[in-house]
Amino acid sequence: MATKFSRQRQAIWDFIKDRTDHPTAEAVYLGVKSACPNISLGTVYRNLMLMRDTGMIRTVEVGDGVIHFDPNTTDHNHFICTNCGKVIDIDGGDVEAIKQEAAAHFTGRIQGYSAYFYGLCPDCTKSAATKTTE
Amino acid sequence: MATKFSRQRQAIWDFIKDRTDHPTAEAVYLGVKSACPNISLGTVYRNLMLMRDTGMIRTVEVGDGVIHFDPNTTDHNHFICTNCGKVIDIDGGDVEAIKQEAAAHFTGRIQGYSAYFYGLCPDCTKSAATKTTE
DNA sequence: ATAATAACAGTAATCGTTACTGATTAAGAG
DNA sequence: CTCTTAATCAGTAACGATTACTGTTATTAT
Ligand SMILES: [Mn+2]
Ligand SMILES: [Mn+2]
Ligand SMILES: [Zn+2]
Ligand SMILES: [Zn+2]
User: Is the N or C terminus of chain B more exposed, i.e. has fewer CB atoms within 10 Å?
Assistant: First the structure.
């Protein structure tokens, strides 16, 4: 009889649960405005962090100074476009193998792991190509 | 005839050039105080960022909300202790192999890469062991 | 030594995030 | 269906790391 499922929390969950684009708190806030017109940014942060702490979602920090949120809690890597900033999943990589590789060169005990790959995303690669040809 | 090498910049470089502990700007600021008693934190930031932009050092963002600085600009991975926060180099891993592995599962062009491993560092593993035995 | 300007110290501003506070409201009990 | 109460809220203030501004200082070339 502890946790109440408020309308705001439900709206935030509905918004993020199927996302694959790793929105920021600000983006969630804007996206949830239609369902909850006067929700506050603090409420969005509080709920997102609570969802992280209870394992419903995970946070992704890609180095742009902003926290991104990800409903996909399975082990996977991320690609960040240096041109447009998009954060894209890299599925199917052998995460365990990478962990083993690093463990072989370190004396401590490795528990978690997160990797970020940088470069031009498919979209930006395409527009860079059209720009050079014209 | 553009860049002047100030006493402050020299002191910052002398402080960081052989470090392997990935100090923050605040730590560099404190460490450089003996050589430059009234240097300002802004000067430390400006110079560290300038050194990064010119490739003398690199920045390391491990997810603790603070930028760490690293004079080792060669490709290498990092380990972050979840207990004490230390940032430790993992040398000798096959960085290229990891990049290839990820590239195989992604359609964009991967240029850079950085990985962070989390767990208990050797020191904290040791003290955790003594605590359980006593 | 002098001039030109890169770089400085000090301080104010920015921005993402967190903490506080009095008002709502979801959910279990009767 | 009320009633109670504690979880959650909206609004706003505070926070901490980083960046920007401004008038002064000091490095470098002449
Ligand atoms: Mn993801
Ligand atoms: Mn390093
Ligand atoms: Zn892109
Ligand atoms: Zn440790």
Answer: N
Task: Write the pLDDT tens digit of every residue in A33-88.
Answer: 999 999 999 999 999 999 999 999 999 999 999 999 999 999 899 999 999 999 99
Between the alpha carbon of residue B126 and those of residues A109, B81, B88, the distances in Å are 11, 13, 16
CA of A73 to C1' of D27 (A): 55
* B19 token code pair: 């470090």
* Three-state DSSP state, A119: strand
pTM: 0.91
User: Which of A26-30, A80-84, B81-85, B99-103 is predicted least confidently?
Assistant: B99-103
Overall fold of domain B1-73? Arc Repressor Mutant, subunit A (1.10.10)
Nearest nt (C1') from A9 Cα: D8
d(Cα B39, Cα B37) in Å, to the nearest integer? 6
User: Tell me, in Å, how far CA of B63 is from C1' of C17?
Assistant: 14
CATH class of B74-134: alpha beta
Q: Where are the domains of chain B?
A: 1-73, 74-134
Nearest to A102 among B93, B99, B105 (CB): B93
- CB-contacted nucleotides of strand C (7 Å): 6-12, 16-20, 25-29
Residue ranges of A 44-63 with Cβ closer than 8 A to chain B: 61, 63
Read off the pLDDT band of A11 (50, 70, 90): very high
